[in-house]
Amino acid sequence: xxxxxxxxxxxxxxxxWLIAAAFLHGGGATAYAAEERSNAEESAKPxxxxxxxYVETVAIHPGNLHITAKIDTGARSSSLDAANIQPxxxxxxxxxxxxxxxDQDMRRQVELPVERTVGIRRAGAxxxxxxxxxxxxxxxxxxxxxxxxxxxREGLNFRMLIGRAFMLDNFxxxxxxxxxxxxxxxxx
Length: 188
What we know:
CATH superfamily of the largest domain: Acid Proteases
CATH class of the largest domain: Mainly Beta
CATH topology of the largest domain: Cathepsin D, subunit A, domain 1
Shape: globular
Helix content: 10-25%
Strand content: over 45%
Oligomer: single chain
Order of helices and strands: HHEEEEEEEEEEHE
């Protein structure tokens, strides 16, 4: 019996076998509905993840600003280089104004509401408080409103780090490659 279950799992047929067994034992309508839901959920998922390198160009929206980003699987969240970070109040809510620096020395002044502040731990340094904002990020052909923490990354190699939360279900990373894609999302 154990070999049968192992065989079904290995070939991805375990769910179909379970549904068929339930159907044969009087749960026909329920099993059929479960199979239909399963098929609908599978068709809603992307067909195949996009392979990206450990360094890629992303587009930040608003402004369609292109930035070279490092793919950082060691970080859960994403970080974005921001200069002149200034908190202010707007309609009774906390906002932040900052300057983004893109590739080819492009600059954009941005104002966004603050989602929250986070404490970031770095080796050998005290906890650093950072503002978190939601901003549009296009990586390859995937556009998401991503939460990013703002930090001055002047003097570092990459203006943005893309963390795991952004990459869930969409990407496979080739650690030996760079610039395998270009931002190709519909303009937002």
